[in-house]
Each structure stands twice: as C-alpha cells, then as structure tokens.
C-alpha cells in the first residue's frame, strides 16, 4: 500500500516536473537564437506554428515519404534543458553515493566543481553553454521555486518568535552591507593603481547590492546536522530569505539609478520611499493571495488530484502580479507561502499535502542545482576580467562589513531579545554569510550597458567560490570547535509537546498577570483572532486543533505504520492459524473451537468487506483521479494487522511487542486504568468510554485528513458492519452461511486477525449470548464493566447471529437496533 | 510590608533584588502592578487574580493562579497553599520566569533548569505528594485542551494516557505486564523533559520601563 502511494506520488511529481520543464523551456525558445519552435506541443500548448510542417520533410526534392527524419532544432531547447537538469540531478545522486563527501563538503561546492569539470569539457570542444540564463528566465522561472521552497519550509513558530530579529538582520543588515560595501568600494576605486576609476558610485552600489545577498544553504544544512540552537538557525534562515527580497529591490533600484546621469537628493528620498512601497506592497499581495489560496482549497475536496496545483498557481500568480507592478515579488511569494501553508495543509488531503511538499522541494532544488551547476560552467567558459585589487578588496570589504554589521546589529537587537545572542552566536552568524546562487544569477543577468560587467561577474564568482569553498567547508569544524549552543530540534514526544504548550500558556498567563506583554501576548491575541475569524472562513471543517492533538495523531499514525511495516508480509500465512489454535488449546477451556470457528466466520465477512474497499481503491489509482480516502482504509487494515500481531503466540509478553508498540507497554486494565491501550487494540471493545474516545479520535482524524464522511465511517471500527445492516436480513444470513461454509486460506488468514482480536481483547462477557438472557439482549447494555481480563474468552456461544446483533448494541449500548432483532430471533437455534 | 508602599525605599528593594535577582526598576514596575491588582492592599488574594480580564481566556488559568499561592514556589520549606500573598512572595514566584544570565556555567544552568521544571512540576502535582498521578496529568491536559472547542474530554484523556505511557516507557524501560506505574516523580519529569530547553523557553522579558498603563488601555480597548 505504501509503495503504491509512493508510486502515485512519484507519478504526480513527474508530471509536475514535466510541466515545470515545459514552462521552463517555453521562454528559452524565445530568448535564445533558436527559431521559436514551440516545444509546448508536448503537453501544454497547442502547436502554434503549423508552418513548421515543411521542416519535418527537409529534402523537398525527394517527393517520397521519408522513412526516417530528424528535426533537432524543433526539440533543441527543451531537450537541452532536460539534459542539463538530468546531468545536475545525476551529480546530486553521485555525491550521495559516498555520503562522507557531503558530510564534509557542502553540496554547493560539489555542484560547482562538477560544473567546472563540465565547463572545462565544453571549453575544450569549443561548445557554448546554452544561453538559457537570461534576466527573464531567471526572474520568472528560476527564482520563484527557490524562494517558494524557503518560504514554504520556513519553520513557522520559531520564525514568528524571532520575527523582529530576522527582519532586522535581513533588512537593516542587507542595507548596511550594500551601502557599506558600495561606499568603500567606491573609495577603493579612487586608487589609481587599480585602474578602475571608471566605475562610478551607482555601479558600485549595484554591485554591492548583488554581493550582499547571502545564501547560506550550505550553512543551513550544516546547522541542521549539528542541530545548532533554534534562534541562530531561524535567524540565518530568515535572513537569507528576506535579504533576497531586499537585494532584488536594491538591484532593480540601482539598475535604474545606474543609467541615470545625475542622481539628485530627491532621488535618494524617492528611493527610500520606493523601498518601503515595494517591500510592504509585496507583503500585502502575498497575504491576499495566501488567503485566496486557502479559501480556494476549502472547496477542493472533490478534486483532490488537482489540489496541489492551486498552491503552485496561486503562489506563482502572487509572484507574477507583484512583478507586474514591479514590487517585491519575492516578498509576495514568501508571504503567500507563509500565509497559506497553515490553512492549506489543514484543508487538503494528506496525499496532496505530501505532494505539495515534495514538488515545492523538488522545484526549488532543481533551480538551485542548476544555478550552481551553471556557475561552474560559466566560470570556465566566459571571458573574465581579472583585477587583483578590485577583487581582493571586495572580498575583504564583504567580510569586514558583514562582521561589523553582525556585531553592531546584535548589540542593538540584543536588549529586545529574551535570549540574547552571545559572542559565539554572533561569530557564526557573521561567518555564515555565504554568497550563492542569487548573487551569481543577479550578476549574470546584469544588462550589458554596465561597463564593467565582466569584472563584476569575475569578482562575484570569486566571492562565491571563496565563501562557498572556504567558509562553507570550514564552518562545520568551527561550530564544533567553539561549541555553539545547540538545541535538539526533533522532539517528538507527547510529553514534550504538552509541556511546551503548558509553558507557553503559563508564560502568557504570567505576562498578563504582571501586566507586561511581549510576543507571547501578541501571539495569544493572534491565536484568538485566528480561531475566531480566520479559521472559520478559510478552513472547511473548522475546529481549532491543538498542536498536542496533532502530534498525538501523527504519532499514532506513525506507530500504526511501523506495525504494518514489521508484519505486512504474513497476512495470509497459514501457519499462524495453527498457532492460534494451539494457543487456544493451551489455555484449556472447552468450547474454544466453537468460538474460534464462529469468530472466524464473522471476521471472514468483515475482512471481505474490507478487502472490497481496498480493491476499489486500487482501481481508482489506475484512472486519472487519485485515491482520496485510501489512507483511512489503510489505517483500518493496519490496525487489524496490529491486532493480529499482538495476538501472536508469545507476543503478549514478548519483547517485540514492547519494542514496536511503545504505547502498549502498560498492561490494559491495570490500576492505571488507562483506557488508551485497550482502545487501540480492541476495536470491537464494548466499553462505552473507549468506543466514545475511539470514535472521537477517529472521526477527528478523518476530519483532519479525509473529510469525506464515508471514509470516516470506514475507519470507525464500530460501523464496519454497516453494509450488513443495510442489506435485508435474509441476505445477511445467506452471506453468513456462505461465509461459514469455509473460505480459502486467505479468508481465514484475514479473519483470524479479528477473531483472535475479539476473543482476547474484548473484555466484558457478552451477556446476550447467554442462554439465560434469551433472545432479549437488552441486558447487554450494562456491559461497560471495566474488567478486561481473560474471561473475555468465554464469549459467543451461539453462532453467527450473535455477532450480527452485536454491532447494534455496541453502537449505542443498550438501545436496540430494531432491524437486528428479528434476525437474532430467527437464527436462534 | 508597609515600608514597601514608597517606591523610594531602597534598602527594602535591595533585599528583594538580592533575593530574586530583579533589578530595582523591574521591582518597581512589578510593585506597581501588584498594588494595582490588590487594589492598594498589602496582600494579594485569589479573587484579585481571577478578575484579570486577559487571564480569562487562558485555559490553564486556575493552575497559574494556584501556582502563586503555592508555598512550594516561595523558595521556602513547606507545602500547602496560602490564602493571600505579600509582594515579596509575588516577586519570588515571578522570579521563576526570569531569563537566565548571558553567561552561565553548566551548574548554574542546571540549577535554573531544575528550578523552572520544579515550577512546572508543582503545577501538575496538586496534592503535594511528589508524584504526578494519572489523574493529575489528565486534569492538566483536559484544561489545556479545553479551549480547543470540539475536542471531547475523551480525547484529552486518551492523550494524557498516551503521554503517561510514554513517560512510563521512557523512564522505566520495559515493564512487565503486571507492573504498575504510579506516577511521574520529579526525577522522571526531569528525564522526559531533558530535551526541552526550558532555560531558554520559560522566560519573560521583564521590562525596565513602565508599560502597565499602556497595556491596560490596550486590553480594555480589546474587550
């Protein structure tokens, strides 16, 4: 089942890849020299030029139908793009064959190295790299995936806890760097020995803006590996994200300014104003599109297969619209992703959610990989203008200003932080300012009107090489050497979650109590607003969900999956039946056989019903739609497997049970009177409390992931027999008879799980089976007695009808299902 | 305590500052707030805290308020609850939320950790018996989830049970079926929360400037 899910996910991912490529390659046609033969005919666009026909038959003099033709020009652009992507991806695979390489050397270094090699090869055969990386291609197609990825995977909670610092570093820090480096470079340019006096202030500022875009992917992956403390991580993460936005704004501004002959003071003022308009406008657009996207996904429950598309389209739309008004498109797409993530992930199905994450990640990685790869190639294949003085001073100044900036900015921000940055943090923060893909792409796409473009390109490449190779490689040993404070960031226990919530609430409470407020106060207020208004509008099934519950569900699901993974192999192993029988004999009570056969029958039916559902689900996957609700069924089946497993001989006290089912380590029914483990194990349990909580929980989960009602019903253990209740009683009886007629090994195998489950796990005796109670099973309503001892074994004495009646009184204990009673009576021997 | 009435009473403040680690400004602000809450009385009662409007929405309001009247949080020996607290005790309880110093040795850090966790533990352990029983745990989880709307009590129960089992499996390792886990002791509590960086989380940035009036205006305008 899981492989199937994976497959369909992959299929979808591949589809997206194709679409992405087509989109990517579309403009390449128009921006390169190749005559625009629409590559879109692959899937998306109709063939635009029917006039391309003659090209398919190049030799006109030959009137015969050509048997074999080739038309490379037609496919050249998408073909080459595909090959480039493929090559870069192969490189990525290659690095991970020997994982120690990526441990010590950041991936970006390796990519650049591979690019260098490829560039060398291309240079030696005098091949030009495809000119795909133009200004428009970069800004319209390569940048959005990168920033969408960072925006979407931004850890929301720590981000908002540190939002002030993040923005402080991103905005003020970048401004500081750009202006500082620009000014001092201009000063350096005045030194005659370097022969760069022709670079004016505007160009220097433009270059400085480019060079101050930090891109610490490599650093972040190191941070993740050594689990550096959360505050540092999020500041570096957020800084690289928002400083892209700032850089691009500055870049566009300075490109404009660089063309101006004279810069007047009013222009500076306008520039500042524009800066804010651009930034805040982008944010506004992002928020709007984010909310629209969330609102849209409210209604996509019936079109699960295109659900992920909305996320991409809306974020891309936000980006494009922002571009249209030339406000910060990065800001727009990032805020869009941040805004919608929370709501969308609650609205869409689990599968769509996974797909979204995968595709976002994939597109971002491809883009970045390509840029780094390209950087390597371009380093070799373009002409450089080498100027020792300028390059060295740039390197030096970038380092110095970055260091100074971090020192000064932390001094200012520290008094406002609950956890101030200490010196080690500051050092790593300053040292982690690697330059990367964005800088390169920006400088590569500089307009040719900039006189010293080649020098800028060379300097930027040097800068990237220096930071990525030297700083990138040395940062891991450095972090370990100076022993930066670390946080364990993968805490996934319920206790930790409960207590973090408890702490948060306590702090918010005490803050209220002492009449002071900080971000907990605002967080509290926002949460209230969110729960009261936003969620109602944006989320289909609006019920506020605590993160404790979410984690609980997640852990339960994980647990269930684990169990399936460990035992999935032997669903119909015949030997287990034998062992079951032996186990039963061992406990030495009469009538055991009866019970077993009886239960086998009923579970035969159950499993058959279930299996049908499964088959239908499988059938769906072959069509165009995705299976919407297979996951719940998966869980159901997994639960069965888990029950079966727990019933294997020897597994009751065996160590393997404790190992795989970590929540079951307490025996059910002990004085802890924890109803939790039994509730998970016996879904036919008739304790009211358990059934209630089970129902609550399952329905809650189904609401969360699979809002369709039918699926939730399928998952509710109590309602499994619905199909039977719906059919006329006679046919039920027939069915039952047929079932009891004995089925194949498979049926038994499946049935065994349930039969055994109920016979050991269902605690309370089924009184209505007692002959003394007669046909009236009304007394079964009081079976809520909590003892779940082994005497559960003494249950059904009478054959099938006993079982048929059960769901009725289990559903709502005590009240009888009128439909079932006649059945009971007729079948009473 | 009458001496505390005047803000300029330095020796009194100095003693408190030494005891709790707050700065004079912080003490001054907190004292102002204390008097505001207690309606210019010397002693603060539960009823005073119950009327704070901002606190009304807090799901664990009762636990928080109880913590202020719990003798165990006063850095003194003895347990049980009191009916009213003085400013000094108010300040001592508040000092549990003081952010740690920038440079701490490992021992100091561990001490701060234990203190903060002790505070949390005491919030759970309502009957002062040194263990968090399942009932107590359940109660807290129910309260925590009580604002989540549709979630039934049963879910909360289930989660508390699961959490308890988790504690049992973490702290006791593999248990025999007939073993019984009575409750979480403080040692186990430390163990299960060892990954959580409480010294960086359970902090309030006590302000050095006075925002009480601002805050109150703000909160009254919201309501």
What are its keywords?
heterodimer; A: 829 residues; mainly alpha; 69% helix; disordered N terminus; disordered C terminus; B: 223 residues; two-stranded antiparallel ribbon
Tell me what you see in this structure:
The complex is a heterodimer of chains A (829) and B (223). Chain A has 829 residues and is mainly alpha-helical. Chain A is built from 34 helices and no strands. Chain A has helices spanning 2-31, 53-56, 72-97, 99-104, 107-124, 135-152, 156-161, 163-189, 201-211, 217-226, 230-259, 265-297, 307-324, 329-347, 350-381, 388-413, 423-431, 437-444, 453-482, 494-513, 519-538, 547-567, 574-586, 592-622, 630-647, 655-660, 676-681, 688-705, 709-715, 722-726, 729-740, 745-761, 801-811, 820-827. Chain A is globular and about 65 Å long. Chain B is mainly alpha-helical. Chain B is built from eleven helices and four strands; from the N terminus they run ααβααβααβααβααα. In chain B, α4 crosses α6 and α7 packs across α8. The longest helix of chain B has 20 residues, at 153-172. Chain B starts with 9 loop residues before the first helix and ends with a helix. In chain B, 36% of the residues are buried. At the A-B interface, α20, α21, α22, α27 and α28 of A face α2, α4, α7, α8 and α10 of B. Chain B: It is a lipid-anchor.
